[in-house]
Amino acid sequence: MQRPSRRPTDLLAAASLTLAALMFAGNALAQPADTQPPLAHVQIDVHDVQAVRTGALVFMNQCLACHSLQGERFEGLAKLTGLSQQEVARTLKISSRSMLDTIETPMPAALAKSYFGVTPPDLTYEIHLRGADWLYTYFSSFYVDPERPSGANNVVFHNVAMPNVFAAMQGLQQPVTQEGFRQGQRMPIAVGVKPLTRGSLSPQQFDAVARDLVTFIEYVGEPHQFERHAIGRWVLVITALWTILMYVVYRLYWRDVVRPHGPRWWSYLKR
Are residues 119 and 200 in the same domain? Predict the structure, then answer.
């Protein structure tokens, strides 16, 4: 059978598509990467009970209105803060809910999305997704941006929908910019902040508050880690003792079956 001949127009169309695909791929590869602001390093200790307790109180007052924290229950929050269950229920206005429920924001997801354009994320997942350094930098790097609906923006989360809930404590800040790239376009990029007005806390005090808040969220991201570590030690000890006991039983059992210089026990399996 004779193969059908291709028309010149078909070959021209195929060549044009191939050339367009190569040009698109070349532009994508040549596009500069987005400028990433540096992250501030934070040293946290989830064994610091006072830091975890302070962070829990800050979360109750500043974050719970919009953000859930399903890694912990209201009962655990009462233990961390040193408050009674009745005080926690009265403070958070959750008298209609059980203290065994996970910590969820009272704001309905649909209402939050209508206000902010997105549903505020569960901070239990954010600490695992982004890490402690990113979350600490995020909390401390809001700056004034009149073009945003909330009047605020963030160094590590450009065009963030969240308003600056820390403005009263930290004070207002203005961005420190440098030339960089965003989505292939050269523009000024915020890489830091500097004070604009004073807040109710000094910079050192607010840094401690932000660090304690990150410590609390890191702890709640895996609230049973201390119990697991304690149980794990005992499991290793019991496993070691059980191994020694089984070896002693093995030697006692096989000494009457196998002679000291005779064939080993596995040779009997071949008979």
Answer: yes
